[in-house]
Amino acid sequence: MTLHAENENRVIRISTDETDLIYCTNSNGRLYQAYFGEKLLHEADITALSSDEKGGADSGAGQKGWDIYLPAGSGDYFEPALGITHSDGNRSTVLTFASVDTKSLDGNATETIIRLQDGQYPLEVALHYVAYKKENIIKTWTEIKHQEKKPIHLTEYASSILYLEHPAYYLTEFSGDWAKEMQMSTQPLQPGKKVLETKLGTRAAMFMYPFFELGLGQPAHEHQGEVLLGTIGWTGNYRFTFEVDNMHHLRVISGINPYASRYELPAGETFATPEFIFTRSDEGTGKASRHFHAWARHYQLKDGKGDRMTLLNNWENTGFQFDEQKLSGLMQEAKHLGVDMFLLDDGWFGNKYPRNNDRAGLGDWQVMENKLPHGIPFLVKEAEKAGVKFGIWIEPEMVNPKSELAEKHPDWIIKLPNRETYYYRNQLVLDLSNPEVQDFVFGVVDGLLTDNPGIAYFKWDCNSPITNVYSPYLKDKQEQLYVDYVRGLYKVLDRIQAKYPHIPMMLCSGGGGRCDYEALKYFTEFWASDNTDPVERLYIQWGFSQFFPSKAMCAHVTSWNRRTSVKFRVDVAMMCKLGFDIGLDGLSADERTFCQEAVTTYNRLKPVILDGDLYRLVSPYEGEHTAVMHVDEAQSKALLYTYNIYPRFGEALYPIHFQGLNPNKQYKIEEINLMPGTKSAFQGNGQTYSGDYLMKVGLRLFTTETTSSHLFELTAL
Ligand code: DGJ
């Protein structure tokens, strides 16, 4: 390979306000990561960067550095980002620099496209980077295409590889299961590989969530130290590989999980990977999370800057047992509470096989005539009469074998032709790789909205992973099912987005089993967990808040953990997108009044809660108390949430140190969300403190009362 002179020592700089990711070409024409870290101050210093010394095992085969997109068979013995079997059977690829383009997207974001090629094969790899300056987020994805005579096969196709060099690496991962979402744990990374991945297909996040935090030099800490936070925008199987190599360098490979997913790529077609989205911070995870939150609100989340509706849902209250009268009553209750919407959950459809439990009817999206004889138009009208909006639950990717849909279209179902079928929640997954099935799924939403333009909201559920993995549509391309399923889903969501750009939708997956930033381009919010026990929610919401802004996380007040007060349950849900899923008849008059007042307060403080910066002050993982706060952009209004979980007898109660305030402003602090007839026990209630005092000295606001909470509003004078 001969290198054009202008490409020798070529430096490509991808920058945000706080971070530099710099690549340099070597004399061999390949492009290497030369620097990734805190932004360099002096442009001139960049010329001193060299990538020659870096890299893993020196094979003598030409690998001299940290290859920007490490291909298999190119002289590096560690996990590759790209694996190709060329049309002639050759499994090696060597990528050299071809060109780079940059374009400004909106004054804040810049896209850099780096093109690489293989001197021996007509193969082009384009690496895309979009750097968001202010939010300090970089997202990157890769596009692969070729002009070989026959198709090539992709065995690995990561979105990105990043390299780090620190004396120690600590990985924080987020594991879980139904009702146990986003449990955080941290471990040091030793030589060898640690893999985070799932193979669940649809409900892809259920056991391991597609997020990681890396503490560099020390475990990731909330308020200090260098950290890297990453996630993949892919609503399917994903894999993060963390490999500490022979030089104690850490390689982080992120992408679709290539497990059972070898992909055939015909000439001329482009294979685009999902986006890997990451940020780093030199001041701990709190700041890194705020990067994600701000970026999501501004760029990624559907209607990220918009308002969110409070709601009353009926699932925890009625389950499948309801009729028109019951629902009309609940709409009145929604109005009484003061929420914006009534959300009708599962159980409203199916006639031949009525959906009165989870064993039948899924797939038959016609209203159940016995239960709801006047159909959805009646419900929309009843909601209108009550003065609330009407939202509805669907699970359009799934089917019960006991359904008319399964009888009519058995070939639309993912199911092994020659083995006994097993069921997850008595249901199966429709084959979204099939365009006819995509039309059907789109038609569920389109049909409902065409017939009932008054529907104001969808809750889109997904209760089963892909089971019995076999697509009748893909025939001899079974290995492409996991990828093509997700692409089929995006095609459906694109069509919905195009036709109904403003319809808010909740992403739900038997709780929070599906939550990623690609899906959230189409969904305004997600259901974080079926577990609404407020104690458990403190942990779950703490976990999700590492990556998601409060306005994206639905939190409902329910009857889970009745031993806790309604106030405690409401105070926990107030941190996120507030909803209720509880019968008001089970509440005392005071509790009802409290809930109504809380909704009014929530509405008043929405700009701070939904769009303010989140500061996680005290972690529930570190004791029996936790506190977080929201601060608005002008630092003129803040809301502090304090929770006492199960305090020990006589334990020391430390002051809470506020964050994010203006040290030079004076803030009046007032306890809010008090039960009717009670007063704040905080002695400083109503007093004024400087932001400096609140942040340095702090206030003693924790108590020893079990499962109790206190919310404080701060107003700059
Ligand atoms: C699982 C969801 O997480 C619940 O909120 C509820 O919608 C049920 N599915 C309904 O089947």
Q: CATH homologous superfamily name of the largest domain?
A: Aldolase class I
CATH topology of the largest domain: TIM Barrel
Poorly predicted regions: none
How many beta-strand elements? 35
The total tally of domains equals 3
Query: Between the first and last Cα atoms, what is the distance in angstroms?
Result: 68 Å
* Mean pLDDT over all positions: 96
**Overall spatial form:** globular
CATH architecture of the largest domain: Alpha-Beta Barrel
Bound molecules: (2R,3S,4R,5S)-2-(hydroxymethyl)piperidine-3,4,5-triol
List descriptors:
Beta-galactosidase, Chain A, domain 5; alpha+beta; eight-stranded parallel beta barrel; Immunoglobulin-like; 3 domains; TIM Barrel; binds (2R,3S,4R,5S)-2-(hydroxymethyl)piperidine-3,4,5-triol; single chain; 11 helices; 717 residues
Q: What does this 3D model show about the protein?
A:
It is built from eleven helices and 35 strands. The strands form six sheets. Strands 5, 6, 7, 8, 10, 11, 13, 14, 18 and 19 form a ten-stranded antiparallel beta sheet that branches. An eight-stranded parallel barrel has the order 20-21-22-25-26-27-28-29, surrounded by six helices. Helix content is 19%, strand content 30%. With 717 residues, the protein is an alpha+beta fold. The protein has three domains: 5-300, alpha-galactosidase from lactobacil brevis (Beta-galactosidase, Chain A, domain 5, Distorted Sandwich), CATH 2.70.98; 311-611, Aldolase class I (TIM Barrel); 615-716, Immunoglobulin-like (Sandwich), CATH 2.60.40. The termini are far apart. Bound molecules: (2R,3S,4R,5S)-2-(hydroxymethyl)piperidine-3,4,5-triol.
